[in-house]
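Minutes, project huddle
Topic: does the predicted pose make sense with 2-acetamido-2-deoxy-beta-D-glucopyranose bound?
PN asked that the exact inputs be recorded in the minutes so nobody has to dig through chat later. Recorded below.
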Amino acid sequence: MAPNLVFSIFRLNILILVCIFLSNVNSREVDDTLVFTVATSETDGFLRYQRSAIEYGIKPIVLGLGEDWKGGDNIRYRPGGGWKVNLLRNALEAYKDDTNRIALFTDGYDVMFLSDLSSIIDKFKKTDARILFGAESSCWPDAGLESLYPTVESGKRFLNSGLYIGYVPEIYKLLTYAPLKDENDDQLYFTHAYVDDKLRNQLNFKLDSNSEIFQNLNGALSEVELYQDSEKEYTEFKLKNVVSHTEPLVIHGNGFSKTKLNALGNYLARAWTPEEECRHCRWGHIDLQKTKDAKMPVVLIALFIENPTPFLQEYFLKIGDLEYPKQKIHVLIHNNVKYHVPHVQEFVEGYGSKYLSLKQITPDDVVTESNARDLSLDLCVQKECDFYFSVDSLGHLDNPHTLRLLIEQNRTVVAPLLVRPEKAWSNFWGALTQDGFYARSHDYLDIVYNKKRGLWNVPFINTCYLVNGTLLRKYGRTQLNYVKGNLDADMAFSGNLNDLDVFMYVSNRVEFGHLINAESFDTTRTAPDMYQIFENGRDWAARYIHPEYPEIFNPNKKPLQPCPDVYWAPIVTRQFCNDLIAMMEAFGRWSDGTNEDNRLTGGYEAVPTRDIHMNQVGWEPHWMLFLQKWVRPIQEHIFTGYFHDPPRSLMNFVVRYKPGEQPSLRPHHDSSTYTINIALNEVGKDYEGGGCRFIRYNCSVTDTKAGWLLMHPGRLTHYHEGLLVTKGVRYIMISFVDP
Ligand SMILES: *[C@@H]1O[C@H](CO)[C@@H](O)[C@H](O)[C@H]1NC(C)=O
Ligand SMILES: *[C@@H]1O[C@H](CO)[C@@H](O)[C@H](O)[C@H]1NC(C)=O
Ligand SMILES: *[C@@H]1O[C@H](CO)[C@@H](O)[C@H](O)[C@H]1NC(C)=O
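Predicted holo structure (tokens), as shared on screen:
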């Protein structure tokens, strides 16, 4: 690494030398240039500004840091204020006679540098102005002054005071041409100077109408584009103004354009480059891996179950499995769903005592979602938490390191990217429409599909996020809460964070987890999660497919064969078996075991059993998918050369063998190409006797295991009978595949 680094620094130096010789800027001029900004606190926007400055070797002088803002209450949409002007005037006082010295002023919360200072100075000198201000398309704050503005040949006509550059003596004159109170509007002050022909000419005061240097974004959103500049030895994203055909060097997300700046800022100033990917991820990153448990930050984890949610037990297991000292975690659970009370109870009994504290808000407490979320913020402050971590029931944290990794990222608000598997549905929005609703950003799919990994500043997050506790204490509940007009709680929270200029980052640096789809979850059914094979296939398989299922495909193992051409393999979990039995018993309408069967097209069954068909419990499509995804591959593996995808099967049913009802089944052939027979409960425990005997081979399988499947050819060779159950109840699941 080292020689490479030396070499590239060497190359960079040559490059800089070449640049300096080519331009009319000398290094003395660059070194002498004063760069100013005003910021009273280190907001996320200010940290971004600073990072961009450091990236290009610019060292701004920050005025006002730590002081109370005195520039009026206009700070949100325009960091306006005469105070800025007055601070700057005082700072320039000492240099006011320095004819050749240049000063650059930018706002601090919504600005980024896109180049080094020598390029900026070079372009400035080419304008022949002594003062150059950025321009914008609207005349603000006094539209009445519009007619006084000189016309322009191209580009923007009106002054914006967020970005300007000039020689110090002229700037100083501009800052002192009239008195200005701290709380008065600085843009108006500068506008009056500009529209005064005499003063403008005297100061050689110009506007950067075509964004040679300064790009004010408001009113120009569609004029700018990112492009990849690969002229240097590394590629970086730069900004191009496609209307003026310029490459602006300083960008200002003024007015309502800050969301756009946030999106551009994910790439600009080398935040993300094709070669190094997320460079700004490393900015401020902390390492907690060696931190002792006792020294870890205190976290309040707030869990919200607002709607019936599939796979909630797994959600809780993943919360419980987070690799983080539980003695540093307070837990608050808001459960709004009666159906989930036992699931919550299970978690509380299993883990509750291990946490620093655990508080529950139950359905009986009748607390609305917004209120519960507000209360959780209060509780965090009350517990003097370092971090607030909110996880809704839809968010599965598959990565047990999620909490630590998010803390280490050291951002005010950061969410782990969660996506519905194989879908483009995630827990963030890349962009907003004018009225604040969902819009897709250019990079949304790249992020969701992990084609680009990094840390993305976005306008909306939900489901799971970490908030630095300092923020909660800084703003209190009146400003930071889950209420905003008629908006949903999550929209309200993101909206309030946007209003406070707090950045919301979403990270996909590693896999963190995924989203559950709860849209069709019907808790009036018995075992409703069993019906989620389509909507939540991954979770369904994790819960219901036997963990040893893949073993049948292990090339080093021979499939088990208890009888000739009868194969035996684990396929579903014990929970699958229990849930399927529960579904059948809750339905309860077992057939009567006679030859008349009006469920069949012919109305006649030659070898009747006591059974319930899958379609009687609304589970036929689910079963067919199960056959296709998990049974068919076994068939293709053991009976090679036969392909039928998807498998067809008209007869899918659960059989109940029971003494006194129907304890056995006489010998018969199945009308299938192959048959599967899944044991749903345990011999010796749930029943005695039972099993399946293949008569031609005089071979019986009696020690069946719950969740294991028997697969055998249907016609001709495998004439078989169901052996007598002598005690208890035996359940099996049968399918006649490809009849
Ligand atoms: C974490 O971020 C804060 C700014 O929010 C910064 O002051 C601090 O230095 C960062 N921590 C580390 C270890 O870099
Ligand atoms: C939370 O944010 C504050 C302010 O940015 C920072 O100083 C502090 O280090 C952060 N807290 C933790 C525990 O990282
Ligand atoms: C079938 O097998 C059983 C036990 O393995 C044996 O007792 C019986 O004699 C066999 N029957 C025939 C017809 O071979």
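Observations noted during the meeting:
- The longest strand covers residues 158-167.
- The chain has three domains: 24-210, 288-515, 528-737.
No decisions taken; revisit at the next huddle.
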